Amino acid sequence: MNAALRSSGKVAAIASEEDDEAIWLGEGPFVVVFDPLDGSRNIDSSIPTGTIFGIYRRLPEADHLPLTEKAAINVLQRGERTVAAGYALYSSATVMCLSVGSGLYGFTLDHSIGEFVYSHHDIRIPERGQIYSLNDARYFDWPSGLQRYIDNIRQGNGQTRKKYSARYICSLVADLHRTVLYGGLAMNPRSHLQLVYEANPLSYLVEQGGGKATDGKRRILEINPIMLHQRLPLFLGSMADIAELVSYGDIQQVHNPGYEV
Ligand SMILES: O=P(O)(O)OC[C@H]1O[C@](O)(COP(=O)(O)O)[C@@H](O)[C@@H]1O
């Protein structure tokens, strides 16, 4: 992926989840951040995985700095400066969802011609869903607001009075893609997902599809990244479902003891 971005001649700086530091490539107009393989812990069991990327413009104000510094500054842009983002999901079909700032669109790989075909026109995330997605083996480590919210939607005591179902693949792209199509919530309440490679591009896509993205307190796209591998809680999904969740206040899992699987 690094070699392809370098040879495009369009990319000034890149940062990959797999690398320790940002890399300066040249004088191109764009900056690309990416997680090449999200959900990698699932790969041996053939569970869906994904790729996530976000694109920014190069910051001309950093041009005078040494290479390592300007690479670092360019990849730490706020999510609201994103000019394009996307994810690819490798599953029963290979699907790529993209935005260039005017809505959310989906393309499906047609193996017979070796091309992506335009399959999902102007995707709108349903205002409400009936599915929640998170690792709920962590229930007893959650704060009380999150516990109460999940208890309520499980029992049909939330705002919609409907009983929600749970789905958790543990591959963020796959859990989000289902949420984009059917509505509901894709969540990780502990400080685990990465702002630069995961939260920002996916939040941009969710907002482009009419949904909402928060860390439980702040709109993701307004957060100033301060470190390349910065982690945070992440709540993505339907506008009304995320608003209801956030109204419980105390939803970020501060107690994060570390988990073996
Ligand atoms: O262990 P948890 O909290 O359920 O986290 C699972 C999440 O971690 C991820 O596997 C990403 O983690 P990595 O960045 O360590 O690969 C997501 O795809 C998934 O949603």
TrEMBL record:
Reactions catalysed: beta-D-fructose 1,6-bisphosphate + H2O = beta-D-fructose 6-phosphate + phosphate
Span of domain Fructose-1-6-bisphosphatase class I N-terminal: 2-120
Family: Belongs to the FBPase class 1 family.
Keyword Cell wall biogenesis/degradation: no
Segments forming domain Fructose-1-6-bisphosphatase class 1 C-terminal: 125-247
Lineage: superkingdom: Eukaryota
Protein's name in the database: fructose-bisphosphatase
Enzyme Commission numbers on file: 3.1.3.11
Alphabetic keyword roster: Carbohydrate metabolism, Hydrolase
